[in-house]
Amino acid sequence: MFKFKDLNIWHVLILIICSIFFIPLIFIGGSILFGINENFYHLYENLLLDYALNSLYLVLGVSCLVTILGVSTALLVTYFDFFGKKFFQWALILPLAVPPYLLAYVFTEFFDFSGTANVFARNIFDLQNDVAIFPNIRTITGAVIVFGFTLYPYVYMISRVALMNIPASVIEASILLGRNKIFTFFNLSIPLIRPAIIAGLALVAMETLSDFGAVEHFAIPTFTTGIFRTWTGLYDLTTALQLSTMLLLVVFIFLAIERNSRNKIRYANSNYENNAYKPIQLKTYKSSIAFIICLLPVFIGFILPVLELINWATQIDNIFSNKVFTAASNTLFVASLAAFLTCLLALFINFSVRSLKIPQVFNDLLSLGYAVPGLILAVGITQMFTSIDFWIANSNFFITGSIIGLILAYIIKSYAISNNVLNSSYAGIPKSVDESAQTLGANKSRLLQEVHIPLLNTGLLTAFLLVLAELIKELPATLILRPFNFDTLSVSVYLLASEERMFQAAFPGLVIIGFGLIPIYFLNKLILNKNN
Amino acid sequence: MKNFLSLQNISLDLDNKEILKGLNLQVDKGEFIAITGSSGAGKTSLLRIICGLESPKEGEILLDNMIIFNKGISVPTEKRNIGLVIQEKVLFPHLTARKNIEFGLSKNSSNESHVDEILHHLNITKLANKFPHELSGGESQRVALARSIVMKPKLLLLDEPFTGLDTELKSNIYPEIQSILKNNMITSLMVTHDLNEVKALSDKCFNLDSGKLIEI
Fold first, then answer.
1. d(CA B141, CA A67)
2. The domain A1-35+315-532 belongs to what CATH superfamily?
3. Which residue in A has a C-alpha nearest to residue B88's C-alpha?
């Protein structure tokens, strides 16, 4: 138990770090104290209901789609053996490598009147050139499809692990009591994994509400596009901050649901010994149906956009242009630096919790940053930096618009990822190892350098790669906080797509997907270990 | 030297349960003390208090005429020069047996020959370049013992250190350990359930019961 008399320099240092993490949010929340201006009234009377309803439709639509896609595929690959199952076990996670904004750009072009899909359909059915089979994708339904096919892996992964945790004896007991397999799956397996599904859905809802690139491209007025337009169109940062506060409150409700459901998952699994149910072999047409059900989300969420991007990339002469090279090197520089600092911070905090009696609550608080939408974080950091510039540099832009803001946003957003990895790596080192080092005369610094770091090196590398992959595809915070004339891959793709230059945007898009495959590798390893 | 280690009025509560109650113990330099007692009596906690991994509620501990713990002073574990060998696997998994043994030593040639000597005495020379995962339970225990002894600690604490070693090996290494400890005048406190160990190694034996030590 932490006592006030134990307070030392480390506590002060960690309090300062926590403050840096939370001051941007305090600036956002504090905006409600400034009162409401005429812009807010204008939004309230004309747009706020649209923002709320569109966001609600999106969250509901995406939730339905990801539940259907995620749970059905998880049930199939866990309880059945069919043609291609081994491939789908890992391939079903692949769409996670494609950021929603990228799929939105690809789909817009692909289903356009003169896009690949309509041209292909006209050729197949020998139709006139003015006929379009596929409708315009730039609608809420289109956005639901885009989010659904890129975010369903969250529900798939968490449901799959939960299903694997249900022991054979529970399923067999139901069958021995005279219930058939379909009844058992729907009345036993699904209720048992319900907390897992809800946790996955809460994550999907947070991602959907936080998105900026896809909804902006589809011109759907939501809270994120509203915040962006209020700030960059009406030049009203206060109203943008007030809108951010409203969105942040909704996001934190989903965060609370997610945390609560995760606790229930632990409770639901606690009484069982892990002895997975033996899959049923599907034959003939049943195997083909299972194959098609699993292929559909992988095809739409990964194979199709990748093939289309490759197709576009091959149609321009110089894919390695100077601009792409500069954007790639900027991306690698800023993402690597932020990933390094994030891992260093996570190492320092986890070491402090383990060896310096720092309460775990600090670590939990710092991990909340992942839930804050990138756009809101960017608005908060900008407000914080302009205030600092006002105090120290008499309103000259000293740190506002510098790379510091971008790095800070990246660290806050990705701390939870590196913390999760290091936390579990630390759990693998017995406390007695630390005590041995101490009794052998090692002080804290030597304990960290010569015992912990060598033992954590795999965890540190994993955390670095996962954070790097996450940051490379980050768009909204990067778009706002990047220094002047500093383009990254995601920003290049956004700018090129907004100018309808998709062929040029294809190669940077493929690089982003390539980096996005890194966490897929680790996630698959995790699930396969669980399976074995 | 009389009263090389002195524990005065040591009390400890764990999870609102009184484990040690006004415990006193005096140990002379070079003595080997064995402590027995039922499970949960507080034997391991007593050793953890002496080496500083846990703090008692009250009391005073003196080692070599220096206060290492009282109400106002608590010398950090790493500065007490007290070795601890426990029954769990505590070798650093990323270091070879030899590197584990050298961990607490500064790098010089006399230390290297000292390590060779310890390796020889504990019959683990062949294991020097092996990693902990390549060692059996008994071999790991001997390396852990060597790692503590090589430091020439003022006080060596042993918490059931020979668990996992076969009877023949134990009877071979008892005299070796005794001779190393006596030659280096290392004062030792061992917690054990094995009466053969008590007979083979200890000068005095105490039973820990109801939070107090009674000499048997």
1. 53
2. MetI-like (1.10.3720.10)
3. A432
